[in-house]
Write a structure and sequence with these properties.
Shape: globular
Helix content: 25-40%
Strand content: 35-45%
Order of helices and strands: EEHEEEHEEH
Radius of gyration: 17 Å
Length: 137
Amino acid sequence: MKHFNKESRDYEFIAKFEAGIALTGSDAKSLRTQTPQFANSKVEIKNGQPILFNLTIPLYKYSQGQPIDTTQERNLLLSQKEILKLISLRNQKYMLIPISIFTKGKWFKVEIGVGRKMRKYEKREKIKAKEMKKTLK
């Protein structure tokens, strides 16, 4: 099962990372049954720890107890070497964008793309190249 961020199509990525995500039990159950919403989601580095912002995971319908904030900040689990690489790329003015959430075994993983937003003319060129490739086949 894989959930994609449609907004990530507007970015040109120079690197991709696979990170674990810290979830509560009801969040994990909800991800197995429902689709998260990536609207304006991003990854930032706070105090040397990568954090995922604005990812909306809908409430699990059978969860009980106190109401849960569906857009809370979620910690990403990466090695120290990968975190240092992300920090250096972030300092070079690249954006950190979640591309997808997927399961790997019993764990949930987030694919993070490091890149910049494409301009309109770059998008048009990309579409033209894709169409040319189709016509050549």
